[in-house]
Amino acid sequence: MPKISERSKAAPASPIRRLYPLAVEAKKRGKKVYHLNIGQPDIPTPEPFLRGIREAKIEVLDYAPSPGIPEAIQAVQAYYAEIGFNLSPQEILITIGGSEAITFALTVTCDPGDQVLIPEPFYPNYLGYARLANVEILPLTTYRSEGFHLPPRREIEAALTPRTKAILLSNPGNPTGVVYTESELDMLVDIALRCDLFLIVDEVYREFVYEGKHKSILAYPEVADRVIVVDSISKRLAACGARIGMLISRNADVMAAAQKCATIRLSAPTFEQLG
Asked: What CATH class is the domain 47-273?
């Protein structure tokens, strides 16, 4: 009998989803369950988003364009303009959730056997995305006693190897909640320049900052060609089930490669892009 691939064996099941059936069984037994395993906002999805789907004038539910429907791309442009960043349509790719955006980012920046440096604790599914892409994770340990902020520069640079192609982090941090300071981002930008690295930054929780201020990695023009931003409407609009995310980069080569990946999977969901 043929055997399944070693790559599929090495890819870990999501611990987030592994807990789901246990929660279902607990609820059946009358237990109150608090879902701390998953980032599902407990606020209603905005009515305008749902109305956009309900009132869509569609006779044939066909494939959307691979980069995303124009209305969705324009909405992303408008949102980013409000927070101070003017993006062209060519710098935006609508993806099937932030998960696909991260997978595309790893695919276009790393060859099999390359490495990405990730501050840990990190979002558990990063490991699965990396394994499926045949990319090795270099964990950079951060500590609760230090608010999960980054270690000194010398420790970060010491962790890098000739195979390291990128630094991947979520800001604000998932699951730690850390919001990296401007000086920390300045340091990462300088390391990326000096060590010739990409910066892949997951900014999905951008609005969920209650102390201090979030600074986007897009605010650093000197690394515009090294930056890939991962974003999503899942948290911002409490629309996790819509599975609409986005990959953003000012690097034309990155976007061309990511667009190629997008054509392979055809398109993101049409209905949800209309929300």
From this structure: alpha beta
